[in-house]
Design goal:
By secondary structure, the protein is an alpha+beta fold. The chain has a single domain, classed as Trna Endonuclease, Chain: A, domain 1 (3-Layer(aba) Sandwich), CATH 3.40.1350.10. It has 5 helices and 8 strands. A hairpin with a 4-residue loop joins β5 and β6 (119-125). The protein is elongated, with a radius of gyration of 19 Å. 23% of the residues are buried.
């Protein structure tokens, strides 16, 4: 009687995988590996992406202390400390950026959201982060911020350069 267990498990698994694949909006996306990466891996990707894009538009940037500590990225030209956050789009077509710490020493947050078809970004003032009221359930705490596509800009060279120059210059002065 129990000899059929492996066969039953296999059949149910195959049906379930087929159902998942039919509903998987990430299946054909170049970002699918990022969607399935670990939380740390996603964060590393976001930090490294922001640093490389900032350098590309002429703004020196570096990940500080492996992205561990009060802030993730330092911009020496502007003397700014940046908290970097990365999130993939959830089933509600929103991004949930996690683990914002209101007590840490950073000047500005840069967030990147990933959909199956592209990347979006925004600059978040620390004063806005101070207003977050929904904390996470993890023991290490932090606050979460949800953003929709309507609150973010497509990550294009023109958008990123314009926003970086405007927001970083204003913040640094």
């Amino acid at each position: 009687m129990t000899d059929n267990f492996p066969k039953i498990i296999q059949e149910v698994l195959e049906k379930h995988i087929e159902k998942i694949n039919q509903n998987n909006i990430w299946a054909e996306s170049i970002f699918q590996p990022i969607k399935h990466d670990s939380t740390t891996g996603k964060g590393d990707f976001g930090q490294n992406l922001l640093v490389e894009l900032l350098k590309e538009i002429g703004i020196p940037a570096e990940v500080v202390n492996g992205g561990i500590g009060d802030y993730d990225i330092y911009l020496p030209t502007y003397n700014l400390k940046i908290e970097a956050k990365f999130a993939t789009q959830d089933t509600n077509k929103r991004f949930q950026f996690n683990a914002f710490d209101k007590t840490k020493d950073y000047d500005l947050a840069m967030v990147v959201g990933c959909t199956p078809t592209g990347l979006y970004f925004d600059f978040i003032e620390k004063s806005e982060i101070q207003k977050l009221t929904t904390s996470q359930t993890k023991a290490d705490g932090g606050f979460k911020m949800n953003r929709g596509l309507n609150n973010m800009k497509p990550l294009t060279a023109a958008n990123f350069q314009q926003e970086s120059q405007q927001k970083l210059w204003v913040k640094a002065t």
